[in-house]
């Protein structure tokens, strides 16, 4: 058996995150196209994707900008979409919270859906991993997808509308989140939160500037937390 070392875990992180390339590439390509169609220049599109590095929030913000939504609504809705990152951070704290500040800063930047999902599954299954090994695994899972996210966004921004509609790049968005969410639905509170958010997001889709999504996310988090508390009391 190969000895577990940070280098070994980094390689395992790369391997674990590699399948996400199949959806990250078209996801980034689509954002590059949509960003340029929305009027952003190449530098703005790339700054958006490198600094924000949150596909769902980026698509949301660009769409609201196209709809001429007030700046407050753009910021608030994008923040709501990314509120899951706060929950990701909280659940990662027991595993990576004791790392040096510079490592936690890198984890904060690399905290995307893919790196979080694969890392949490690994950390929960392999509790014997040391802190350096966990950090190495997390960074491996992020660094395998990041170049494809940057590169595909750049390609999409450069080629723009020359990509035929028949390519249907928008398939990458729902597939990405289905692949991430499905394995995470391991408990009743998770299922309740997912169900409530889906139902309310659809029911409130007519609300202006995507504010229905804000309300759906808030109610779903409350429902999930309330379910967890109820189950704890019962047990």
Number of strands: 0
The number of domains: 2
Strand/helix succession: HHHHHHHHHHHHH
Instruction: Supply the number of helical segments.
Output: 13
Walk me through what this model shows:
There is one protein chain. The chain is mainly alpha-helical. It folds into two domains: about 5-185, no CATH class; about 185-235, no CATH class. About 75% of the residues lie in helices and about 0% in strands. The chain has helices at about 5-15, 20-35, 40-50, 55-65, 70-80, 85-95, 100-110, 115-125, 130-145, 145-160, 170-185, 190-205, 210-235. The mean pLDDT is about 85. InterPro entries: Brnchd-chn_aa_trnsp_permease. Keywords: Cell membrane, Membrane, Transmembrane, Transmembrane helix, Transport. Pfam families: AzlC (PF03591).
